[in-house]
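Subject: for your reference before the review

Hello V.,

The reviewers asked for a structural picture of the protein, and I figured it would be easier to keep everything in one thread rather than splitting it across files. Below is the amino acid sequence we used in the manuscript, unchanged from the supplementary table.
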Amino acid sequence: MTVKKTQGNKALAEDDVFTFEWNGKTYTLPKFGNWPMGLFRRVRKLDDADATFTILETVASPEVLAVIDEMTPDEFGKIMSDWQAHAGVTLGESGSSSS
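And here is what came back from the structure prediction:
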């Protein structure tokens, strides 16, 4: 069976993009969780911090990563929370006992 990769060939719909502002500029990330299954597989056993940065290093542009590197932990946490909320995702409510 042949699988065509079409996502790279089409423009993302507005709902498929999360937008945030930093120092007067606008940046985007793909919709939270809208990733290939291979990425989910790669991060499934990582701790939260490693999984978060593995995902970001995979889906974010170098420009977005540079902006994230300038943020304080609180600013970064707000962006991550807003990114998840944009997709209707709230981590930690799956019933897991990791807390």
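For the response letter, the relevant points are probably these. The first helix runs from residue 37 to 43. Strands lie at 17-22, 25-30.

Happy to draft the paragraph if you're swamped.

O.
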